[in-house]
Amino acid sequence: MPRRSMALDRATPAVIAVAALRVLDEHGPEGLSFRALAERLGVSHATVQRRCTDLAGLLDLCTEHLAAQLPDVPAGTDWAQATEERFRAFYRLLVAHPGLLVLRGGRPWLGRQLLARLVEPALADSVAAGMTPAEAMTAYRRMYLLTLGSAAFVDHRDPEGATAASRAALAALDPQEFPVLSGGLADVLPPLTDHEVYHGALRQLIDAARPTS
């Protein structure tokens, strides 16, 4: 029987995911590489590659690690409450790691943990509440896209930096061409980094999708 590598035992998928997320959080998407991970973990480049194969596999490890932290909503919880709890938890995980969102881009989030802890229970609750499977999927898709988009377009870990960058861009606009944007910075900028914009929109989608039967 071939001997298992001690390095491979040490560099478990969970350990690699945690290290990769730290690299992303500390250095941004451009700082993530197999070599950087190997140096951080004290193993060889080949050891990390054997676990992940490629960048897509590494990102899948990261998303699965995060999805495993999504809450188990108790059975019998009101549909609207359960739906809001699940998506708010998903949103918190995403905004905590903007670098991961940048690298994943438009790739679908189809790992087993996400399917088991978010997608399947959300759809099952919706069907049990009276929706058809098609209605349940449509409602889920709307909330998923809202959550992903709300997390992706602003680095919520640095709201002051995001606001400053937006302020500088808007201040350079021609007031005659963009009178609302250039003349109402005090009103236009705060919603960019206000989490309540997401929370309020999520509640609106939940209210609109609430089963009537």
Describe the structure in your own words.
The chain has helices at residues 6-10, 13-27, 34-41, 45-52, 55-67, 79-95, 98-104, 112-128, 133-152, 159-171, 179-183, 185-188, 195-209. With 213 residues, the chain is mostly helical. The protein starts with 5 loop residues before the first helix and ends with a helix. The protein is built from 13 helices and no strands.
Continuous helix count = 13
| Radius of gyration using CA atoms only | 21 Å
Task: Indicate the low-confidence ranges by residue numbers.
Answer: none
Structural class: mainly alpha
Instruction: Name the average pLDDT.
Output: 90
The string of secondary-structure elements, in order, is HHHHHHHHHHHHH
Helix content: 55-70%
Outline, from the CA principal axes? flat
> Beta-sheet strand percentage?
under 5%
Short overview:
Helices cover 69% and strands 0% of the residues. It contains 13 helices and no strands. The chain has helices at 6-10, 13-27, 34-41, 45-52, 55-67, 79-95, 98-104, 112-128, 133-152, 159-171, 179-183, 185-188, 195-209.
How is the topology of this model organized?
Elements: H1 6-10, H2 13-27, H3 34-41, H4 45-52, H5 55-67, H6 79-95, H7 98-104, H8 112-128, H9 133-152, H10 159-171, H11 179-183, H12 185-188, H13 195-209
